[in-house]
Amino acid sequence: MGPALLAFLGVAACSAEDMGIAASDGGIVDSAGGDAGGTDPLPPLPDDVALPIVFVHGFAGSAQQFQSQAMRFVANGYPSERLRAFDHDGAGLSIAEYVAGADAMIDEARATFNKDKVYLIGHSRGTTVGTNYLMEPSRAAKVAKYIALDGAGCEGIVATVPCAAPAQTTNTRPGQTHPIPGQMHVEVATSKESFAIQFEFLFGKKPEVVDIVKQRAPVQISGRVVNFPANTGRDNSSLEIWEIDPRTAMRTKESPLAALPIGPTGAWGPVTVDPEKYYEKLVYSNDSNVKQHFYAQRYLRNAPFVRVLSGPPDTGSRVNTNIGDGHAAVIAMRMREWTPDDTLEIKTESASGNQDAGNVITEATGSNRIALHLHDDAASPGVTTLNPLPWFPMQPFQTGADVFMPANDKPDGTISLTNLPRGDASKPQTLRVPNWASTNHTIMVMFSDYAQD
């Protein structure tokens, strides 16, 4: 499962002096044992063991829920080219259609690598797809092992297919085989504890690497720009990737690192990035005058499943966002649920006005949601009340809170977001973004689901 988040589009790039992002500095601590230059993957797994992996996400999800685990698999010697993730309509209900789509991807992977079978992994509603797939013996014959992440479990599948079912301890559905204490629904898909269970089940040994640290080879990122949650390609749009100077919170050059037209599939990349640097992704299209800005933490390893969540100008979240020339609208996301144990401190420093640092996580906003919509509520303009925003708390895996962040159409300051994941003050995760005014700009901040050093 993932965020049922409908983000928005923009129309034009901005000049280099208009904007930027900064993030907390700090050295890379290489917990996998390499030097400061990064780590290499472990020796390759045997070819007959490293069968292709096909991942199927859940309701309102995407391939993004597989990104961290893909990095971990590759760090442990799994061949990256054998990883597959099946994107389907995250809000649709056509399980039979999704089973057929998964079957097509499984057949493609089998043919590409000349293998009779694959490993199949489903999460949440993806386990419903998996169960339906594996009820048919002819399809089950294509699957060597099956992992059901916090969903339907191992019941109902052909008995000859070995199955493991990691789940949060509150999931009482039948067929759960590996409860993981203290974790939430999406966290079961993305955590290192879950990865350790998955890796040992597939390969018969414990993984040597579970922490995500910088790789030695150049880092490449790729993915899709999608209409979310349908996961259709955002056709006739453009994606620009800009390098950011963390000292000045500005773009470093007059031209982007990459300028990519987006076609019917939404696919883009690969683009080579520096794991020590930060980047902005800008999406724009002729069907909107709103510029869409995406900011993320550093890409420490190859990331083939980056999803830029976009949509037309009449998307629900845009329509229900209170916009204005003097305040910003920020969506803070993480593929690990926000809980009351988290801290997400936000402050604004700008010529348009300052906002004192304050934690926006409350019992309401920290209620196991993935996407936090933060903007000035029309009911209390110009002040931060942290009251729930209308509409957003009713959406799957989303919520919203009234937070006033002074802004300008041409940014004149920065908004700083600092997360203490689950309250761990030893690893503050900070991103700073320009204080774009919400009339013509959207801001999405993507925190990693693991703490970066």
Describe the structure.
The protein has 453 residues and is of the alpha/beta class. The protein has 2 domains: 22-28 and 215-447, Sandwich (Immunoglobulin-like); 53-203, Alpha/Beta hydrolase fold, catalytic domain (Rossmann fold, 3-Layer(aba) Sandwich), CATH 3.40.50.1820. It has helices at 67-75, 95-113, 125-134, 137-140, 187-190, 192-203, 316-319; strands at 22-23, 53-56, 83-86, 118-123, 143-149, 163-164, 166-168, 178-180, 219-227, 232-233, 237-245, 250-251, 258-262, 267-273, 278-285, 291-296, 303-310, 329-338, 343-350, 355-359, 369-375, 398-402, 413-420, 429-434, 441-447. Strands 11, 12, 13, 15, 16, 18, 21, 22 and 25 form a 9-stranded mixed sheet that branches. A 5-stranded antiparallel sheet has the order 1-24-23-19-20, with no helix packed on it. A hairpin with a 4-residue loop joins β9 and β10. The longest helix is centred in the first third of the chain and has 19 residues, at 95-113. The relative contact order is 0.17.
Strand portion = 25-35%
Total number of distinct structural domains: 2
In whole angstroms, the N-to-C terminal distance is 27 Å
Q: What's the CATH first level of the largest domain?
A: Mainly Beta
Which fold name corresponds to the CATH topology of the largest domain?
Answer: Immunoglobulin-like
Q: At CATH's second level, what is the architecture of the largest domain?
A: Sandwich
Number of strands: 25
